[in-house]
Specification:
GO molecular function: glutathione transferase activity; maleylacetoacetate isomerase activity
Number of helices: 9
InterPro entries: Glutathione-S-Trfase_C-like (IPR010987), Glutathione-S-Trfase_C_sf (IPR036282), Glutathione_S-Trfase (IPR040079), Glutathione_S-Trfase_N (IPR004045), GST_Zeta (IPR005955), GST_Zeta_C (IPR034330), GST_Zeta_N (IPR034333), Thioredoxin-like_sf (IPR036249)
Keywords: Isomerase
Strand content: 5-15%
Pfam family, one: GST_N_2
Family: Belongs to the GST superfamily. Zeta family.
Radius of gyration: 17 Å
Shape: globular
Bound molecules: glutathione
CATH class of the largest domain: Mainly Alpha
Structural class: alpha+beta
CATH topology of the largest domain: Glutathione S-transferase Yfyf (Class Pi), Chain A, domain 2
Length: about 220
């Protein structure tokens, strides 16, 4: 089958992992183009044509370029309606799911993005331990609110919303990978851990996990 989708992504990027999960949940085949952030591939001249912000992921659907993991995932959800990633029930349910994704994508993840951590090191002179504390602080603050929101909601089921994974879970699981990387204590978040465990029983989350990709020589 001819590939029409190409994903520009980095193995350890949580925003990239989100899109890999969405593609897997929908059973979509795609061409994988790795952008190694540790080798600054995102700064190579050609990549700015894909994304002037020089961030991954980028999806190329036969020449249509899309950046921002949530925009990519919603695009995939609209163009490939099987295995819906947003509730088809009503607007309030969809807003509820999106608010979880956005609380992670806008309020947690950007604060411990590679560029921010590099600026804390190069611009403000923070050492590795200080940068780790910084990341852990913002993740814990975001997870406190998320745990509370999920514990209080009747919309929660086996997953963040109901009994099928949605965009909310797609954002949550990669953020938990980051949390563990920054040694965030996950004990205060039993609901988040339970949902993570359920997701990690699904091939779409396991097969696309950063640890599944061979290290580049
Ligand atoms: N809001 C964006 C975030 C994209 C993003 O921050 N990507 C990171 C990797 S997770 C990146 O490319 N960082 C490269 C850098 O900071 O130089 C999305 O959801 O796609």
């Amino acid at each position: 089958m001819a590939h029409t989708l190409t994903l520009y992504h980095h193995i350890r990027s949580s925003a990239s992992y989100r899109v890999r999960i969405a593609l897997a949940l929908k059973g979509l085949d795609y061409r994988s183009h790795l952008i190694d952030l540790s080798r600054h591939d995102q700064l190579a001249p050609g990549f700015a044509e894909k994304n002037p912000a020089r961030l991954v992921p980028v999806l190329d659907d036969d020449g249509t370029l899309i950046t921002q993991s949530l925009a990519i995932i919603e695009y995939l959800d609209e163009t490939h309606p099987q295995a819906p990633l947003l509730p088809r029930t009503n607007a309030a349910d969809r807003a509820w799911v999106r608010q979880i994704a956005l609380s992670i994508g806008c309020e947690i993840h950007p604060l411990q993005n590679l560029g921010v951590l590099n600026q804390l090191r190069d611009g403000l002179g923070l050492d590795e331990a200080q940068r780790k504390d910084w990341s852990a602080h913002w993740i814990a603050r975001g997870f406190d609110a998320l745990e509370q929101r999920l514990s209080a909601s009747s919309r929660r089921g086996a997953f963040c919303f109901g009994d099928q994974p949605t965009v909310a879970d797609i954002f949550l699981v990669p953020q938990i990978v980051n949390a563990r990387r920054f040694d965030v204590d996950m004990k205060p978040y039993p609901i988040l851990r339970e949902i993570d465990d359920r997701c990690m029983a699904l091939p779409a989350f396991v097969d696309t996990h950063p640890s599944r990709f061979p290290a580049r020589p």
